[in-house]
Every structure is written in structure tokens, then in C-alpha cells.
Protein 1
Amino acid sequence: MFGTLPIVMAHSIQGRLDKLKQAIEFARQGLEGLETALLEFEEALSGEAAVRPESRKGLDLLSIPEVCQEIGMGKSWVYERIRSGEIPSVTLGHNIKVRREALEEYLQSQATVPRRTNR
């Protein structure tokens, strides 16, 4: 990996590279937490985080907190899937909504079948 560098120097560089990777991972986790806190703050300001009735007639649109609750995942994860287009969404004003049917289709597309092993 390090070409003609002396072995001691290569180990020193590898150790520092490992520390750098660890620091980047901690920073990534911190930024993800910050993103979640900012999104929650924004939702609180807009009133989107308010409690909603359980059943609705017509289109069954879910807010981001409801999507998170339905699938047991964090807001950052859900927003990333929405941004990438994996989970289809609708933007109404400043609010992002996900049709329950679209969420169910996404979950169905993620289903895996366990492989059988020959014993």
C-alpha cells in the first residue's frame, strides 16, 4: 500500500490513517444527530410534528415522523431515502408527505428471501 516506505513509517502512517477514519466516523454520526435535531426543530416551528388523528378518509398521507414510526427508522435515514427517490414522496407547501401505499411498495421491494443452505 505504501510502496517503498520503511515498514516503521508505514505502520505509523497506517495508525494515523485509522485514527483519521475513526474521527471521520464520529464526525459523521455527530452531523447525522445535528441533522435530526434541526429537522425536528423545523417541524416543531412549522407545526408538522403535531399529533394527528389515527384514521383518515381518502388519501392516506404520512408525515415524516409518521413514516419513521411506521418503519422504526430515524429521520435522517428516512430523509436520505426520500432524497434519493427510493421512497416516493409528495411536497405540499413546505411539508413532505409519503403515501402509505408508496411506503408499503418500498418495503415490499426491500424484502429478502433467506437462502437455503445444504447441510
Note: The two ends are 40 Å apart (CA to CA).
Protein 2
Amino acid sequence: MSSALQQPAVAPGNGRVSEEARRQADMRRTERARQRQELNLQRENILSQRTNHPARRAALVAALAQIEGQIEAMN
């Protein structure tokens, strides 16, 4: 997957960003924002769950750690 910080392609000769490159960059930003929102919703769901069962609690802690790792990797 390419980095969202990559510079869009510049049209040869005029130094301007092509419309297609701009559209693709916008699509990548939109997709990353959607992914980040989805991960944050999953995180909130896990944090809202209450349990006294040790195995369930361990599973929630592991899931939370995985989601937070994915969020951190996006930054």
C-alpha cells in the first residue's frame, strides 16, 4: 500500500498536479479516514463492554491491543 503522504503525480511540462492524480489522492485520504473511523468505532465498542469472566476479559484486552496497534500504524 502506498503512503498517503506521497506527492501526487505532476503533469509534465506545466508543473501542475493532474486531475486524475488529485482524484486518486482524495480517494486514498477518504479510504484512510474511513478505516480510522471504523477502528475507532471498534475500539469504543470494546471499551464499552463489561465482563467479569477472565477469559472474555483477556480476549477483549487482546482485541483492544490489536486495534490500538492498527490505529498507531496509521499515524
Note: Residues 26 and 60 are 34 Å apart (CA to CA).
Protein 3
Amino acid sequence: MRYVLFAAILTLAHSAVQAHKTAPCAEVQPLLTTLSKENHNQTALSRLFEIGDDCIGEIISTLNNSKDFRLTIAAQETIRYLGNPGALTALDAWNKKNTKSYPVFGPVPVPIMEFDYEMIELNLLEPNQRDLGLIVSPHLYALAIDKQSSRSNDLLQKVLKKLETVDELSVTKTMVDRLKGSYPLKPFNDSNNDVAATVLENAFFLSREDKQFTTSRLLSLNGSGNKALVELKLSRGLLAERWYHVVVKRQGKQWGFFSITFIKQS
């Protein structure tokens, strides 16, 4: 009788543990549905960033199997924010077989995928391509962040050389000059245990004056706590606002940039 009772307790305990593990993953579909209706939705994105690594199977399954193409796009946006290696491999494979045009929402994570390399070459190196300014900033910054890849390093040098000829007063010229002034990008300490403030302090893409008008907010930590999603909002008035999402990754006792994404401006 004691053995039977003990076995029953173990079974209940195991069931409770499994329920605890799977309960957050039940949120994935409703959250992706919300994200499919509003890209960059802060609430949905923050929660997906928090639980996404533990529920990556559900997100990849949506990417590959959803009959609602909007959900597929939401899944790819989530994967880009997470930068989960297995999910990035799945997304790269999906991009190669996908035949539909779609809006690309989310960061350019590292290591850079083949799809993103193609976008970099098209938007930043194609002859006579118009200056897209902040729209291509995530690609430029990804090349600088992805220091381990010789392809990224080679492309970065080509892009910087090509962009030397842009208008001195352009946004693109400002981006290039600030990147050059901080390259190679280095990890940074979170001395005050405030990752959002630390990200703002080390945001090389903002001028010193910009930073005085910028607020930073931690949106979410991933499940293992080794990545953080931070919002930066630069505001010089209602019609002079700009938003960025910055993902940083822990490197030992320091943080380093993982992706930098210009979201929108007013």
C-alpha cells in the first residue's frame, strides 16, 4: 500500500512538473496571433522573448505549418528577436523554400542568415540603390556585431567604403561615422545592475546629445537570463520621436550587442 501511495505521489509530482513546463507554451499561439495583427506589439513580443527558447518547437512549427501566412510572419519576427540558433537554421531553410513575398519584421540576428546577406548586398551594395537611411541600419549594425564571420567583416568594409560617398548631411553618413568611431564593438559592464541604462549608455548609434533626450526600458529577459530586450525611445517632441529595440547578450560578466533594430519614428 505504501509503495502504491508513493508511486501515486511521484506520478502526480511528475504531472505537475510537466504541466508547469508546458503551460507557458500554451500562450505561444495567442501571442503570435496578437503579433500577427500588430508587428512589434510590446506585450506579445516581451512575453514571447521570455518564453520563446523554452517553446521554440511551437514557434518553428508555426513557421513551417501555419495555414495563416500572417502567423508565419509573426513566427519569423519572434525568431529574429530570440536569435535561437536552431530556430535561425529553421528560418533560413524556410526562406530558401518560401515563394511568397512578405514584410520582414524584426532584427537582423547573428550569425547572419543567407537571406539577410542577400538583403545587405541588395540594399547596401547594389549600384544606383537609393539611400534608405535608418531602414537599413539593422543590416549595417549586424555586420559590425557579427565579428566572428570573415564574410561579415569583408562585407562591412565594402559597405563602409561605398557609403563614404553619400551626402555629408545624410542620416546614412551619420550612421557610418558613429559606427566607425566605435568599431570594433566591445562588450560592456553593467556596473549598476541596470541593463536598460547600460544599453543606453553604450548606444554608439546615438549622439551624446541624443542620449539626453532618450529613455531606456527593459522589456524582457529570456528564460535563461542571458539575453535582454531593451527599448530606447528618443524624443525631442511629439513629431520628433524615434524608437529602437536592442537585444544584448551576456558575454561572461559583461553584455554585448546582439541586434539593433530601428522600429519607427514620428
Note: The first strand starts at residue 214 and ends at 221.
